[in-house]
């Protein structure tokens, strides 16, 4: 009998490196706090006399909005300028506009020279915000202030007034003007439409109304100068724009910050701002926030209520920032009126030394609330506990402060203008790794009223959702055949993404290595925002950005893991709805192949630059785009007759961009698998296997052993023999009764896919949790692989990296199935006898 040790307490210098790169995190697990009493509310502005900062030079900018239809007599048009250091739902400034005529309105606003403004228009009276030509909300427009000027915006539509006019497109590339190289990850916007450039610098802005638009190219980390230029759009045509920008050198910014005397001594002080390294996500996140604490820069506490530190920011960057004990909203600094305060700096070329003071943390007359929570013994060591607050909706979770083993604390200063709803979760994954009594995004949460006197709340989490202290699994010894060094023993991360996930990646990489894995597959995503017309690309807040994916690869490579990049699409609903709803005419298919090509080459370039070892193309969703493709209902997809040639050309292009292995992902089917000719150009098949073992809800091991042997011998072996290429078996088996079947039984659904249980998701009560069945499935499959030397590798799919969850998903993180992999992987690779 063998018992697997738990790896959770392992620490390495890699975590420190990762957190330094992220400038963030729940890195401050402070244990030397002196917790104050909270007898009552006494605002305490800072005592030191700090010189007032030199005002920035200003310019008068006139914003003119040109409407398609006139306003109703009871309506007014306003300009809303956003504070991206806080969020789209808070601390914005509205400027009522004056009519020039029935369709044109304007307002003049004083703005700092060289600043970049995020804004949009809305109609007062019904509070209707802008939408684009496709009926999607306009997140925000951008304008670069280079001097006093007037800018004209064509306002396409509002939610209750869709646009029916003519449109065109802006297409272009983003280029480093010093080197001529393409720039990925640059945000380009015009007319309220946004696009993020890919590895070739390509960007596309579709659905722009006919006329002249202001194009802005903006580096979300400030690393390049901001670009601005007018571009005229004609009906049905694509206007080319070349965005040439110069790189900005980093300059030292040394900060000394005095905080109020009632600040918790030693509490982590972060800088929230409008750059990626200051926690900005450039998205409208949960509850209207836009920043996440895990990505923010934090300062060092030097004692006597003073923090300091030097950070390096791009020279010339417009930095909007604030000091916070939470994020851009919760516990963010306030001015003398109790309003949220955001500071502004145009970073000087030679850097700057700044001494500043936080006036207060409080707003209104409610006293701070101290939260202390004791978590259960089975809480994995090394995990951080977060607290999540609710306004109209749950907002982004905030890291708590560790005071001793299994005890965490947080003092909430503001906002406290209403009753506080809150809950606790693990690793920032609120909605998936919650306190059992407040689990799920629909949870009401705990509640506490505000008061004039300080409150000290002490809570206990008796149980976490999907976590039990079951102890390590006991495994029966088996004789394992040592495989060649190039055998793949891998783990594939789920494509679930939240902006705070990167804080948990260092520990997740260590956990994967501790399983004995030699490969990890990351699954970055792009989003299909619309089907007709086709809009496909990275979406901030929903898809990981370039720097996040490269950081994950770097962390894995630092631990000598091979890395595969398996890019995935995100659909508005499902892949079935996507294909069935597409027009699929010749023009649509040309756009689809152009978009998939950009998608594939983007991640080929990312994999090459980050030193990954493999890239996986295809997937179980792509069948309609293959030669002689069919739709999910079995009907022809009308794919172009030269589809095989298109795929061959694409694979050749990917190989020109990436020197590692190129694998083709295809789903296993017991009734036969499509093997297009272009697969011969790849280096192997990444065979996606789920179900196909038994239709029984809880089959015996003997039944599964026979089915596994038949699957490999009758289904996979002929494929390997025909292709003459390595076959890598990628397994996805949820830990529920019935996961051995090809169709999971679920209410109101004909057939539930294996990955529909991936977190975060609402629980499917009709499916019964069965952790042991998942473990048995892996034991049976690995035993079958053990005696078939022609299998070149095994991968476990759906690994939920942010947190250990013993849930119904296919993730093996912290489950008995993970113990099975630990036993077999280490012996396959000769790490254990």
Q: Could you characterize what this model shows?
A:
- It is a single chain.
- This protein has 4 domains: 26-35 and 365-460, Immunoglobulin-like; 58-244, Immunoglobulins (Immunoglobulin-like); 250-357, Sandwich (Immunoglobulin-like), CATH 2.60.40.10; 487-828, Alpha-Beta Barrel (TIM Barrel), CATH 3.20.20.80.
- It has an 8-stranded parallel β-barrel. Strands 24-23-20-21-22-19-25 form a 7-stranded mixed sheet, with no helix packed on it.
- Residues 1-41 have low confidence and may be disordered.
- A hairpin with a 3-residue loop joins strand 7 and strand 8 (128-131).
- With 833 residues, it is of the alpha/beta class.
- 16% of the residues lie in helices and 31% in strands.
- The two termini are 13 Å apart.
- Helix 7 (701-723) crosses helix 8 (771-786) and helix 8 (771-786) packs parallel to helix 9 (816-828).
- The protein is built from 9 helices and 47 strands.
Topology:
Layout: E1 2-3, H1 13-22, E2 58-66, E3 76-81, E4 93-96, E5 98-99, E6 104-112, E7 116-124, E8 128-131, E9 141-144, E10 149-154, E11 157-158, E12 167-176, E13 186-190, E14 193-196, E15 202-209, E16 211-219, E17 227-233, E18 238-245, E19 250-258, E20 269-273, E21 297-303, E22 306-314, E23 318-324, E24 343-346, E25 352-357, E26 369-374, E27 385-390, E28 398-399, E29 401-404, E30 407-412, E31 420-426, E32 446-448, E33 455-460, E34 474-475, E35 488-493, H2 505-514, E36 519-522, E37 525-530, E38 535-537, H3 546-558, E39 562-565, E40 568-570, H4 575-581, H5 586-609, E41 614-618, H6 643-657, E42 661-667, E43 684-689, H7 701-723, E44 727-731, E45 744-746, E46 749-752, H8 771-786, E47 793-799, H9 816-828
Parallel strand pairs: 2-10, 12-18, 19-25, 26-33, 35-36, 35-47, 36-39, 37-40, 39-41, 41-42, 42-43, 43-44, 44-47
Antiparallel strand pairs: 1-34, 2-6, 3-4, 3-7, 5-6, 7-8, 7-9, 8-11, 12-15, 13-14, 13-16, 16-17, 19-22, 20-21, 20-23, 21-22, 23-24, 26-30, 27-28, 27-31, 29-30, 31-32, 37-38, 45-46
């Amino acid at each position: 009998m063998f018992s697997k040790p738990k790896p959770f307490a392992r620490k390495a210098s890699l975590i420190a490196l990762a957190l330094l790169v992220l400038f963030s995190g729940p890195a401050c697990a402070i244990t030397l706090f002196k917790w104050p009493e909270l007898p009552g509310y006494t605002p305490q502005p800072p005592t030191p006399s700090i010189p007032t900062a030199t005002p920035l030079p200003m310019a008068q900018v006139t914003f003119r909005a040109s409407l398609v239809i006139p306003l109703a007599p009871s309506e007014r048009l306003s300009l809303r300028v956003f504070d991206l250091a806080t969020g789209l739902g808070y601390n914005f400034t509205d400027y009522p506009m004056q009519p020039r005529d029935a369709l044109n309105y304007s307002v003049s606003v004083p703005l700092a020279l060289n600043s970049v403004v995020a804004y949009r228009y809305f109609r007062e009276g019904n509070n209707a915000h802008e939408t684009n030509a496709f009926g999607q909300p306009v997140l925000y427009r951008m304008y670069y202030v280079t001097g006093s000027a007037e800018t004209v915006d064509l306002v396409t539509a509002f939610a209750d007034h869709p646009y029916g006019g003519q449109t065109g497109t802006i297409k272009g590339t983003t280029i480093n003007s010093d080197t001529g190289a393409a720039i990925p990850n640059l945000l380009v916007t015009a007319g309220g439409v946004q696009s993020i450039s890919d590895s070739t610098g390509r960007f596309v802005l579709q659905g722009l109304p006919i006329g002249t638009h202001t194009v802005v190219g903006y580096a979300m980390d400030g690393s390049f100068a901001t670009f601005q230029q007018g571009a005229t759009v004609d009906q049905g045509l694509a206007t080319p724009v070349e965005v040439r920008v110069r790189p900005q050198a980093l300059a030292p910014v040394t900060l000394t910050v005095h905080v109020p005397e009632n600040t918790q001594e030693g509490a982590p002080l972060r800088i929230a701002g409008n750059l990626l390294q200051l926690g900005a996500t450039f998205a409208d996140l949960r509850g209207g926030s836009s920043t996440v604490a895990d990505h923010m820069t934090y300062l060092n506490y030097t004692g006597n209520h003073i923090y300091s530190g030097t950070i390096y920011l791009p020279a010339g960057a417009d930095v909007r920032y604030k000091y916070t004990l939470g994020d851009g909203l919760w516990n963010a600094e306030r001015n003398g009126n109790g309003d949220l305060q955001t500071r502004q700096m145009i970073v000087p070329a030679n850097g700057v030394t700044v001494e500043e003071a936080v006036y207060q943390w409080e707003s209104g007359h409610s006293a701070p609330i101290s939260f202390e929570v004791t978590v259960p013994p089975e809480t994995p060591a090394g995990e951080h506990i977060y607290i999540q607050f609710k306004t109209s909706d749950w907002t982004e979770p905030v890291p708590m402060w560790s005071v001793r083993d299994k005890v965490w604390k947080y003092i909430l200063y503001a906002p406290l203008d209403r009753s506080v709803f809150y809950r606790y979760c693990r690793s920032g994954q609120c909605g998936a790794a919650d306190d059992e009594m407040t689990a799920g995004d629909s949870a009401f949460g705990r509640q506490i009223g505000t008061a004039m006197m300080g409150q000290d709340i002490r809570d206990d989490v008796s149980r976490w959702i999907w976590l039990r202290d079951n102890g390590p699994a006991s495994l029966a010894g088996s004789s394992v055949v040592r495989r060649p060094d190039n055998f793949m023993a891998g783990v594939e991360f789920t494509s679930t993404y939240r902006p705070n996930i990167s804080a948990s990646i260092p520990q997740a990489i260590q956990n994967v290595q501790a399983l004995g894995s030699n490969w990890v597959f990351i699954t970055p995503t792009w989003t299909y925002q619309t089907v007709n017309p086709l809009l496909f690309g990275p979406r901030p807040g929903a898809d990981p950005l370039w720097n996040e994916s490269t950081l994950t690869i770097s962390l894995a490579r630092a631990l000598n893991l091979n890395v595969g990049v398996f890019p995935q699409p995100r659909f508005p609903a499902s892949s079935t709805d996507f294909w069935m709803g597409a027009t699929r005419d010749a023009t649509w298919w040309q756009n689809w192949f152009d978009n998939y090509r950009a998608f594939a080459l983007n991640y080929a370039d990312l994999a090459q630059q980050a030193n990954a070892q493999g890239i996986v193309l295809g997937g179980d969703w792509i069948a309609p785009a293959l030669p002689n493709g069919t739709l999910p209902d079995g009907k022809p997809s009308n794919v172009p007759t030269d589809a095989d040639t298109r795929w061959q050309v694409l694979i050749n292009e990917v190989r020109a961009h990436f020197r590692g292995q190129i694998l083709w992902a295809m789903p296993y089917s017991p009734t036969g698998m499509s093997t297009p000719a272009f697969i011969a150009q790849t280096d192997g098949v990444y065979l996606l296997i789920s179900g196909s073992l038994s239709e029984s809800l809880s089959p015996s091991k003997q039944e599964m052993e026979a089915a596994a042997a038949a699957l490999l011998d009758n289904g996979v072996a002929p494929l390997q023999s025909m292709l003459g290429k390595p076959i890598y078996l990628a397994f996805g088996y949820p830990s529920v009764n019935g996961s051995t079947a090809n169709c999971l039984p679920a209410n109101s659904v004909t057939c539930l896919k294996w990955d529909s249980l991936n977190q975060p998701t609402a629980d499917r009560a009709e499916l019964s949790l069965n952790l042991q069945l998942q473990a048995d499935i892996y034991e049976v499959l690995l035993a079958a692989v053990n005696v078939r030397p022609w299998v070149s590798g095994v991968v476990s799919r759906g690994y939920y990296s942010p947190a250990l969850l013993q849930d119904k998903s296919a993730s093996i993180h912290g489950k008995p199935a993970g113990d099975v992999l630990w036993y077999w992987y280490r012996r396959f690779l000769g790490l254990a006898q």
